[in-house]
Design a protein that fits this description.
Helix content is 40%, strand content 19%. The strands form 2 sheets. Strands 2-1-3-12-11-4-5-10-8-9 form a 10-stranded mixed beta sheet, sandwiched between helices. It has a two-stranded antiparallel ribbon with strand order 6-7. The protein is globular. The N terminus is likely disordered.
């Protein structure tokens, strides 16, 4: 994934103090649905790490989600945010069951959490495992995490002329947020250049229609690259309109390396890219900010299988590794990834989403055996 780039990126993101920490406090936020089944899997991996790494973990169980909203009236309790800010270096977030129709007073807790903790970058590696039948791909989708349509400023009103309802949403793109996301994307590309001898950054937008908002995103990304050409020498810089990007993502996934996109496009692209590697159940992400990193599997709450014990824990286990990478512990993260890759390559113990019949716990135990 991002193995050797982590220490440098941790320092750049303001997480250098965490890089040397051997005692880490990790918040556990299962959320809804299968989040309650996969987050314990991530905890189990951390609890069973080889003592040679010298890592010690304290865990704090925290609440957030739609069920929390139904129980307490708040989807993201103030206490959860307070503990994350004051006590935790990292966290694992499961999944949220968000209703498709408006529920008065409810909004997504993970979106709010990203804003309140300054988790400006969502890093989603999508990489096939050699020795499998998956399409060859090795990309990192870097998604701006705090603005775009996800600022959730919406209104519904009645058109005075037609008498019909109109719904409007505000799309916000700022220079400040775009500079930050372009910089971390280019830094990731720079490390991949050093590892692989080549790297390409693809800026995804729709500025041919949204000339001001996406136009600003495109302009600032290009400026960050052009203003630091000496630093980023050797990185190929491309742009791709989002609709053609979707087409090419599935036709030519091998063409993409590091992709940076505004919040909405990044969300859609990274979920879609999961189809290239078998399932959303295997794709991790990390929400990265200056003070804390939150690992988050890319899948949703999957209410249709919640409680059956067959949810795929791989995305959470990989997100746990990704969290550790950005907290400055790349060696243990690499070993976790290697164990996961071995599980996928062998293909004997896998959950139903990958065509198997194994349980969540059986997959966890298989990964732990390989990690040992």
């Amino acid at each position: 994934m991002l193995r050797s780039s982590v220490s440098r990126l941790a320092s750049l993101r303001g997480l250098a103090s965490n890089a040397a920490r051997k005692n880490l406090t990790i918040g556990l936020i299962p959320g809804d649905g299968i989040g309650k089944e996969v987050i314990p899997a991530g905890k189990q991996i951390l609890e069973n790490l080889n003592p040679k790494y010298g890592l010690n973990f304290d865990f704090i169980d925290l609440e957030a989600g739609f069920q929390t909203f139904l129980d307490t009236g708040k989807a993201l309790p103030d206490e959860t945010v307070k503990i994350l800010k004051e006590q935790c270096q990292g966290a694992l977030f499961g999944a949220v069951q968000s209703p498709t129709t408006k529920v008065e007073g409810y909004s997504s807790p993970i979106v709010a959490l990203r804003k309140q903790l300054g988790l400006y970058a969502n890093i989603r590696p999508v990489k096939s495992v050699s020795g499998t039948n998956d399409r060859p791909c090795d990309m990192v989708i870097v998604r701006e995490n705090t603005e775009d349509l996800y600022i959730k400023i919406e209104k519904t009103y009645t058109d005075p002329v037609t008498g019909t309802k109109v719904a409007e949403a505000t799309k916000r793109i700022t220079e400040t947020a775009t500079r930050k996301i372009a910089t971390i994307a280019l830094d990731i590309a720079l490390q991949r250049l050093k590892q692989n001898g080549h790297a390409t950054l693809t800026v995804t937008h729709k500025s041919n229609v949204l000339s001001q908002s996406d136009g600003l995103f495109r302009e600032i990304c290009k400026d960050v690259y052009e203003s630091n050409k000496a630093k980023y020498a050797g990185i190929n810089y491309n742009e791709q309109i989002v609709d053609s990007m979707v087409y090419r993502l599935f036709r030519e996934p091998e063409c993409f390396d590091v992709v940076v996109a505004p919040n909405l496009y990044g969300d859609i692209l990274s979920d879609g890219a999961a189809a290239l590697v078998g399932s959303l159940g295997v794709v991790p992400s990390a929400n990265v900010g200056p003070e804390i990193v939150i690992g988050e599997p890319s899948h949703g709450s999957a209410p249709d299988i919640a409680g059956k014990g067959v949810a795929n824990p791989i995305a959470t286990i990989r997100s746990t590794a990704l969290m550790l990478q950005f907290l400055g512990h790349p060696e243990v993260a690499k070993d976790i990834e290697t164990a996961v890759d071995a599980n996928i390559r062998e293909g004997n113990i896998k959950t139903p989403d990958l065509g198997g019949k194994s349980t969540t716990q059986q997959v966890v135990e298989d990964v732990l055996s390989k990690l040992a």
